[in-house]
From TrEMBL:
GO terms for molecular function: ATP binding; carbamoyl-phosphate synthase (glutamine-hydrolyzing) activity. This is Carbamoyl phosphate synthase small chain. It is an enzyme of class 6 (ligase). The active site is at C246 (nucleophile), H331, E333. Keywords: Amino-acid biosynthesis, Arginine biosynthesis, ATP-binding, Glutamine amidotransferase, Ligase, Nucleotide-binding, Pyrimidine biosynthesis. Pathway: Pyrimidine metabolism; UMP biosynthesis via de novo pathway; (S)-dihydroorotate from bicarbonate: step 1/3; Amino-acid biosynthesis; L-arginine biosynthesis; carbamoyl phosphate from bicarbonate: step 1/1. Residues 1-171 are annotated as: CPSase. SUPFAM superfamilies: Carbamoyl phosphate synthetase, small subunit N-terminal domain, Class I glutamine amidotransferase-like. Belongs to the CarA family. The lineage of its organism: Bacteria, Bacillati, Bacillota, Clostridia, Eubacteriales.
């Protein structure tokens, strides 16, 4: 079947459809990872987005549901240069196209993904539509104009009600804005008792759990729209150790009185260099975000910048001068990508133990 990509600036690409036939409108972004397409598709942080993979061959090792970061696909669609229909991997359960067919997500292949990536880098993240149904440009243009992109996805992609994961160690309240499965697994490795709370949970409900610390997860959307989450963090800042990751990092910036801004095309991939000024060491990290923290705005509120992006010098990590709160913009849990910064989970657990004497 034919697959079509149409950008809001009028640019049209024609290729082949794969996955589930259909039409999807979303923010067009690109990801530079070579592997990890399954983890990327199932990461709730991609809700509302259509992902172009810059690596040309996708699907060559198939999919295995144990590698998924959630139970569903949250991205609106995927664009690739070449999709493999004959994967080679002893763990493969099906092809990527079959997975997308089953979970209802359209894809387009056989297009110039280098051209699409250059367009996004040049013009910024654009609204676009991919379709295997609508073939005329006028119909695609009308659909784009009639569709408003959602900015507050973090309010709906997490758990619907509190979920308890038993552990013998420190009690962690996890504010689920679209948490990745591996983030939870990293806490479980450290024997944490975890209570996952949905967006909008009140301060009183979380305090009733008597947590030793708060982890604010990754998630999709514009952090400025997460007002309730920001207020919750503000209410706990002087009571608990807090660790923010990705969206959690951005909400923490707002909670202390700082600000964030939308990046031109964001950071998405498994190969982003970050410098840790405290350890005088550089890391290659996994990233997925379209917003960044304004450094001056948080430094004026008592935060110290601890990590910096080696490409564009944006803020990648910070901590408070006095309070036991810190955050990073990248993903220390990887999946996909390097896991060299998993030590940050150890740091969080250490803070909880020092402050609360939990096991």
């Amino acid at each position: 079947m034919e697959g079509i990509i149409y950008f809001e600036d009028g640019t049209l690409y024609r290729g082949k459809g794969f996955g589930r036939g259909g039409t999807a409108v979303g923010e067009m972004v690109f990801n530079t990872a070579i592997t990890g397409y399954q983890e990327i598709l199932t990461d709730p942080s991609y809700a509302g987005q259509i992902i172009t993979m810059t690596y040309p061959l996708i699907g060559n090792y198939g999919v295995n549901m144990s590698e998924s970061e959630s139970d569903s696909i949250y991205a609106r669609g995927m664009v690739v240069r070449s999709i493999s229909s004959h994967p080679s991997n002893y763990k493969s359960e099906s092809t990527l196209a079959e997975m997308m067919q089953k979970l209802g997500i359209p894809g387009v292949s056989d297009v110039d993904t280098r051209s699409i990536t250059r367009k996004i880098r040049s013009e910024g993240a654009l609204k676009g539509v991919i379709s295997t149904e609508i073939t005329d440009v006028q119909g695609l243009e009308q659909l784009l104009k009639a569709t408003q992109l959602k900015e507050d996805w973090m309010k709906v992609v997490g758990v619907r009600k509190a979920k308890h994961l038993h552990g013998e160690g420190c009690r962690v309240a996890l504010l689920d804005l679209g948490v990745k499965g591996n983030m939870v697994r990293e806490l479980q490795k450290r024997e944490c008792d975890i209570m996952m709370f949905p967006y909008g949970t009140s301060l009183e409900v979380i305090e009733a759990y008597q947590p030793h610390g708060l982890l604010v997860s990754n998630g999709p959307g514009n952090p400025e729209t997460a007002v309730e989450g920001i207020e919750l963090i503000r209410g706990l800042m002087e009571k608990l150790p807090i660790f923010g990751i990705c969206m959690g990092h951005q909400l923490l910036a707002h909670a202390v009185g700082g600000s964030t801004y939308k990046m031109k095309y964001g950071h998405r991939g498994g190969n982003h260099g970050v410098y840790d000024s405290q350890l005088d060491r550089a890391y290659i990290t996994s990233q997925n975000h379209g917003f960044a923290v304004d450094a001056a705005s948080v430094e004026a509120k008592g935060m110290v910048i601890t990590h910096t992006n080696l490409n564009d010098h944006t803020v990648e990590g910070m901590e408070h001068k006095e309070l036991p709160i810190f955050s990073v913009q990248f993903h220390p849990e990887g999946a996909p990508g390097p896991t060299d910064t998993e030590y940050l989970f150890d740091r969080f657990v250490t803070l909880m133990k020092e402050r609360n004497q939990c096991l």
